[in-house]
Amino acid sequence: MKAGLRSLAAVLAGVLVLFLLVVAVELFSAVVHPFPPDFGGTEEEMCRHVERYPTWILAVVVPAWAAAAFLSTRVSRIIGNIYASAIVGLLLLAALVFNIAMLPYPSWFEIANLLAIPIAVITGSRISLRRKPTAAGL
Fold this sequence. Notes:
Blueprint: H1 2-32, H2 43-51, H3 55-79, H4 82-102, H5 107-126
Helix pairs in contact: 1-3, 1-4, 3-4, 3-5, 4-5
């Protein structure tokens, strides 16, 4: 029971970290590439807005999203276990695929995210938490 609650807390903490970091990235994006004053929030307007993103913003967003992926899976791994971290990573990857499928990002941005974010998820989940014993420490 204790392990299950710890895993649940790890998933929730990882998702919270992910949410906060993605919101920060989106706020950055909104500041440097704001919505037009007459923006109504329709899908068509959102697609037009995404099509007009400057390349440099997208180039900043790729490592920022990868950092969010790394840190959120890392937090869930530290608090819980690899399974909690995997759940956070899978939720993140599902959101990434959904986002890429919905909006007309350039191909290079989609490919970069589909490479960087899984690498960040795996790295955040798999880094060993324990130090390896040394000959002097035995």
